Amino acid sequence: MPADLFPGFESHWIDLPDGRFFARSGGPAEGPPLLLLHGFPQTHACWHRIAPALARTHRVVCLDLKGYGWSAAPKGDAAHAAYSKRRMGEEAVAVMERLGHAHFAVVGHDRGARIGYRLALDQPGRVARLALLDILPTLVQWRRIEADPGTYPHWRFLAEPAPAPETAIGRDPDGYFEGLLRAWTGDGTLDAFARPALDLYRQSWSVPARIHAACEDYRAGAGPDRAADEADLAACRTLACPALVLAGSGFVGRNGIDAVLQAWRETFAPKAEGAAIASGHFLAEENPAETLRALERFLTG
Known about the structure:
Strand order of the largest sheet: 1-2-4-3-5-6-7-8
Radius of gyration: 17 Å
CATH class: Alpha Beta
């Protein structure tokens, strides 16, 4: 990776039961620890425009999630448990422990945000603060898809049984994934993505094992992730830490931040605060200045 994407950051390879995970860290050693979790179909490189600024006050860790970037991409299991957000949250904790952090803040985007809120629900003593970028709760998302099958068609497609989506995507990975990126940006182009970061995304999604991992990520969303949400909702479990919800005004927040906040307040984050960001789905890359300001206010509040 070009050094200037994360100036001054260290690289880490961490061995866990499902394989070797890659992370970068930077910032003052005594600073409050902060874990950044990327989404689909990206890698930790998505944080390159805001991580160095956050590292002025925090010890920032940018992790490649299992199946993405340079982290391990093991084959999925029949129950899709290997790519459940519960398992991936446990792996995030293990990475942070290896780096010396038992209690930390989490900022997650997209799939990384789903890992973040599952981790905070499962292990509330771990998470000091939680920022969720451009998502609705998984169970809410599935209910909306079922009510309107034309909504977010990639959720249904990627969750289909193997190997149908893997085979279809494998014929032209760049065409499929770049098509999603364009569809989800505010201007319908790839202009928001720095060339070195986009090159890393392409390297990752061109690997058949990582295409399979992305599908398993979504199959887990339809199976164990939704089941975990339903169980917690029935048990009235909510987030114990302060929660911030940021939504791109051109994507998840297109119907207004109030609608997004309502979904969270009625499920897992009754005290969540939130803001709309003038952006498509990729807040940290499309509008890093506004995203950074919102995160800094929350993290230092």
